[in-house]
Specification:
CATH superfamily of the largest domain: HUPs
Order of helices and strands: EEEHEHHHEEEEHEHEEHHEHHHHHHEE
Low-confidence stretches: 166-175
CATH class of the largest domain: Alpha Beta
Strand content: 5-15%
Structural class: alpha/beta
Radius of gyration: 27 Å
Distance between the termini: 42 Å
Number of strands: 14
Strand order of the largest sheet: 4-3-9-10
Number of helices: 14
CATH topology of the largest domain: Rossmann fold
Shape: elongated
Amino acid sequence: MKLSFLNTMSRKLEEFKPIDDKNVRMYTCGPTVYNYAHIGNFRAYIFEDLLRRVIKLNGYNLTQTMNLTDVDDKTIRDSQAAGMSLNDFTAIYKKAFFADIDTLKIERAEHYPAATDFIPEMIDMIQGLIDKGFAYQADDKCVYYSINKFDDYGKLAKIDLENQRTGERVKSDEYEKESVSDFALWKAYVPADGDVKWDSPWGEGRPGWHIECSAMSKATLGNHFDLHTGGIDNMFPHHEDEIAQSEACNGCKYVNFWLHCAHLQVNGKKMSKSLGNFHTINELLGHGYKGEEIRWVLIATHYRVGLNFEIDSSTLESKSLQEARTSIARINNFIERVNDKAGDEQSDEISALCKTTKEKFLNGLNDDLNIAEALGAMFEFIRTVNKALDSGSAVGKEEVIDVMKYIDTIFDVMTFEQKNDVPQNIIDLAHERIQARADKNWGRADEIRDEIAAAGYVVEDSPEGPKVKKA
RNA sequence: GGCACGGUAGCCAAGUGGUAAGGCAAUGGUCUGCAAAACCAUGUACCACCGGUUCGAAUCCGGUCCGUGCCUCCA
């Protein structure tokens, strides 16, 4: 099927057609760099990585922008607490973010604009909104967006402001805004901001959060682009506010497709500091889990469904990651088996299967990133080829491996080249064991197997002889 | 109160009108000196509940119950 997405704006499945023929432009909301990102944050970035790879697999050129929010209440607050300048402080977490991205094999976007590098663009945009009558400066010197001026406000989140419950967090009497729902475009400087401030036509201060994405998407992708994504929590108010700002300022439609991914939960509960169930990538790596395994857990559940990450938060034993390890091992074992047993001859049946597997795989992904369909196609392929290998019928290595490589352009967890990094002393032991077995000295053979195991390797006997691998 | 998203075998999870993909676990088998690993085989799931539409519904409509998220700066 043709590439299609469930568009949040229409709540319907829509065929994807880029604005500019083969060139796709996508904006993905990135991290606020005030702390190490947690596994829940990365669910969104993995979803965006999947989206990115599927778009490319369909033959499009892609330009992706992911912003780095490096100035806001939290970055200011925590940099002060750390006794560091804002830049030095956020630099730590920017660096950590990119390290984590690499660990999870998330492809790099084309642009990573940092908010502090685009202040003039934001100021221009705010001025534009004031000039057009969509924004005003209040008595508190802050500049606000007047949502009553934008007729379509609420169209994305389907929010009807009349029916909203005013939360505890909004105390209307503290505000000097025309309407409680108006949001800040420019926040006037207050002493608590320390030395974090920029000059503007409205006095010193700093930008609001929403204007950052409107200005940076405009600067890197233009006024009207194809896709905009983020976590479901960003839908309202963040994305709603971006639409209001950009469409009012630029006078044209902002984004064609909006995609939102659901939250990750830990053991069925929302992540929260008080439950202590925040987990970072480094923490999981430290417990021996691999980036590929984390990637698998995050990618293998459909993006619009809640993902339940199972882990014992005190011991870090994770059922989810164990299952990922099993799945990846099954796939890599298959590749190894094909490399060992398949030949040059290919049967018509397997050749046809290779073709239909690729089609089913792509069809699944094109149907709003239906990863379960795609996985089903892959596992059926593995099972059928395994059966052919067992029965001794012709299986062409090259074509089968080619299918797996095609699939791995999406998953990026497979191993095609076996690296033999077994140290010499272990290899020597393995040879000694071969001799012991030839002599039917089973006691010594088992002893050597234990020694090898103690060194962190496993020896597996197969019809082709013993294999030694890292445990 | 408003707006969303879910409830399919022990667990995870596809499937949106023609009586249910796939994975994990479990059980049996092949291989093996023994093991491990690997591979193969085996699953009729009252598709949350009630009513309706239809020749026919997990799938459409109405209602009920349960779970989750958002409702102003949390991916």
